Amino acid sequence: MGLLDRLLGRDRKPEQAIDEPAPGMADFDAERRRAEAAGSFDGKHFTEWAPVVDELRKDGRTEESLALAYRCIDATEAQDAVDGHGIAPGYYWDAAVALRALVRHDEEVAVLERYLNRAGGRNPKFEDRLRTAAELRDAAANATDPACPTCATVLDAPPKSRGKCPSCGQQLVMRTVAGQRVAFTPEQAAEQTAADKAAKQRANFLKRLGYFDVTEEGWDRTQQELTGQFGTPAKDGDVYWRLANEAALRYEQTRQWALGMRVRNDMAKFNVEEGRDWVGSARLAAQDAMRDLQEYDDAKQAMILIACPCDVCQADHLTVKPLGTFAAAWPLPHADCSRPPCRCRIQRQMY
After folding, report:
1. Are 136 and 180 in contact (CB under 8 A)?
2. Looking at the 3D structure of the chain, how many domains does it have?
3. Are residues 50 and 127 in the same domain?
4. What is the pTM of this model?
5. Distance in angstroms (rounded) separating the CA atoms of residues 322 and 300
6. Which residues of 38-73 are buried (b: 16+ CB within 10 A; e: fewer)?
C-alpha cells in the first residue's frame, strides 16, 4: 500500500484499478445529482432561467416573469433542502420587483419576508425594500379618496399637481404619499416634502448601517439617547456617527479588521457628503486594512498598490513593495486625492 493510500486510510488491493474512485466520492456525486435534480424544472437548472426572467420583465410580460421567478424560488429552496448550500436571492428580488409593478403589495411583503426568514442573517438591501413595501401595503389598506385639507370635501376630480378646492377655494397641492394621492395646502405640502426627505435620509442611513449589524431598534434607541444628551432632537447625521463609530470599535476590539475598515471607509464617505474633513476617518480605515494584511501575511510578502482613478492617486498605481516596507510608512490614504474619499488599496500581489 502506497503512502497516499495510508494517509487517506485506503487499503487498496493489488487487483484494484488505479483510477478507482476514492471511498465517499460516489456518495458525493450522487448527492450532487440529487440536489441538481431538485433544483431543476422543465429540463433546466434554476440558474439557467435568470435571463429569461429578466427578458420577460423587460418585454412587459410581468405576470409571466413573476410566475417563472416563483418557480425558480421553489427550485432553489428544494435544492437547498437537499444540499444545504443556501438559496439564490436574485429570484426573490425579481418577484418583488414584478409585484411592485403589479401593485400587489401584500405579496411583495410576503416574498421578501420569505427570503429573509429562509436565508437567516441580515440583508440590508432586502430589509430596506421590505420597509417600503410594508408602507405601501398599509397605505393601500387605509386609502381614502383625496379630500380638501380645509373643508374635507371629497375631490371627485382632483388636480394633477395644483388647483383649488371647488367648495371652499383653498389652494391645493397634490402629493403622492406611500403610493396614494393626497391633497395638501401649500404649507402642508412644504412640510410633507421635508418629511419625505428626512424619511429617505433615515432609510439610507439604516441601509448603510445594516451591513454592520445595526438595527432599526438600535437606531431609535440611540436617537433617543442623543436627544436626551443634547436637549434637542438629535440629527440623523449624529445618530449615524455614533452608531458607525460604535460598530467600528466593536470590530476592532475583536480583531475583525476588514469589517472595521469598511465602517471607517463609510464614515469617510459620510464626511465627504457633509463637507467635512474626511482624511482622519480614512486613515483609521487604512490602519485597519494594514492590520488585516499583517494578520495573514508575512512582512516579506509582495504587495501591490491599486490606485483609485484620480490623477493624483494614479501616480502610485501598481507600486510593488514588501508588506513590511509598506507598513513602515503606510502611504494611504492620499490626502490630496481629487475624488475623495481616497479609495486606493494595498493587496497581495497575485502575479
Report:
1. no
2. 2
3. yes
4. 0.76
5. 5
6. bbbbeeeebbebbeebeebbeeeebebbbebbbbbb
Same domain, 122 and 156: no
Q: Which DSSP string do the residues of 111-180 spell out, in sequence order?
A: HHHHHHHHH-S--HHHHHHHHHHHHHHHHHHT----B-TTT--B-SS--SSEEE-TTT--EEEEEEETTE
Q: From CA 270, how far away is CA 174, in angstroms rounded?
A: 33
Given a contact cutoff of 8 angstroms between Cβ atoms, the answer to whether 140 and 177 are in contact is no
Phi-psi category of 347—alpha, beta or left, where left has phi over 0 and alpha has psi -120 to 50? beta
Q: What is the pLDDT of residues 243-283, one digit of tens each?
A: 999 999 999 999 999 999 999 999 999 999 999 999 999 99
Instruction: Give CA–CA dist 252/26, Å, rounded.
Output: 45
Dihedral angle at the C-alpha atoms of 262, 126, 139, 184, nearest 10 degrees? 30
148 lies in the same domain as 138: no
Asked if residue 339 is part of any domain, the answer here is no
Give the residues across from 345 on adjacent strands. 306
Structural domain of 125: 39-142
Residue type, 43: G
Q: Map residue 339 onto helix, strand or coil.
A: coil
In-domain check, residue 288: no
pLDDT band at 223 (very low <50, low <70, confident <90, very high): very high
How many residues would you count in the chain? Answer: 351
Each residue of 276-296: pLDDT tens digit?
999 999 999 999 999 999 999
CA angle, corner 77, sides to 71 and 81, nearest 5? 145
Note whether 285 and 295 are within 8 A (CB): no
Residue 149 domain-assigned (yes or no): yes
Q: Is residue 27 part of a domain?
A: no
Q: Can you read off the three cell numbers belonging to residue 338?
A: 481629487
